[in-house]
Amino acid sequence: MNTRIRFGLIIALIFVISGCSDIERDNSQSFSSEQTGITRQDLKTGLNHLLQEESYLLSVQQKGGKPYPATDEFTSLILEILKRGEITEHNEPLANYDVAFMFEGFQPIFFSIEQKKFSFNDGKVYRLTQWNKKQWSRYILKEINGEVMYDTFEKDILKQTTIADVNEDGEDDHVALYYNGDLRLKVHDADVMVMPDLTEHAISSIIPSHQFQHDLKIKDQRFLVGTTYHFTNKYGSTSFLDVFRYEDGQLIREWSSEDLSDVFEIKAKEGQVLHIEDTHNGELVKISLQEHDQKLLETKEKLDKEYFYVQHVTNYKFYDADRDGEEEVIVLIHAGHSTSQFSKSLFQIYDFNQNGIQYQKSVFMDSKAADHLRDLFW
Fold this sequence. Notes:
- By secondary structure, this protein is mainly β.
- The chain has 3 domains: about 5-150, Dna Ligase, domain 1 (2-Layer Sandwich), CATH 3.30.1490; about 155-260, no CATH class; about 260-375, no CATH class.
- It has helices at about 20-25, 45-50, 70-80, 200-205, 290-295, 370-375; strands at about 5, 60, 65-70, 85, 100-105, 110, 115-120, 125-130, 140-145, 145-155, 155-165, 175-180, 185, 190-195, 210-220, 220-230, 240-245, 250-255, 260-270, 275-280, 285-290, 305-320, 330-335, 345-355, 355-365.
- The strands form 5 sheets. The chain has a 7-stranded antiparallel beta sheet with strand order 3-2-5-6-7-8-4, covered by helices on one side.
- A hairpin with a 4-residue loop joins strand 2 and strand 3.
- The model is unreliable at about 1-20 and about 30-40 (pLDDT under 50).
């Protein structure tokens, strides 16, 4: 039976040695017996080269400790983290590190947890653009077949269920939405990041308004993940929606609310009426302008070929808006005018089914048709 060993993160004291940084000193040593017989000059370097490999063997060495091999799952998570790295503008040297990642055939990657930087010690320093530095404290060492290995990062399960066989192996499959420093979705053997760099405070805060609320909807091989952060801002809250498709052992993101952009094209203004066209389906809509709206637009001589664009996705609900027995996804959006401060809130209605997510229509909040939708949110 596997024995689970949980280690806390140990940050080593930094010793300053004149004329020699920690990395320069440690880079002259042999890091892994797997690379014995290979000279330092023979080892490849550079993030681009590393990410082009088809298979990986990884050992991990905490500063001052001994190296341990990593499982495939842990290796995949480390590679995903490294993909978030961008070369820093000044390429300043990385003098100290906390852990070294040793991919077979490559120079060691020296990683500074606190600085969120890493380097092959080849003159280039990469900084992670999206990474929760507390994630590293969640690593798990496990004894597997008598060998201690880096296995995974500790998971907090947020949503889980069992669904019909998605990979056609004759057995039902497990689905989980979980947190390990990132928000992730796992379906059978497929695992994908939904949102990077979430703080634990947003997952487990004792203040409900500071927490993220999560939803998981499943239609055959389609998975909708919804997340709302209720902490008050000028819009009230912030929501994110993503739809994934399970195919050939992978989860593929095929739609995201973060990709929403233009929603209406302004066609003309006639007195107190604004004529606009829905860019999704070509439907023509009339907006009655209030006095405040008129003032915001009065300086505009021409309004054609201008747009309302999505400024903020505020919230969402699941509701059977058309009374067909199936819930639609109702998304509350704040849309702004492209060249003035004129803005409107509206509801976008989507179908979510086994074919994915499909846009149906938009309803402006101040219209009569929105009465029953407003009641969902307030």
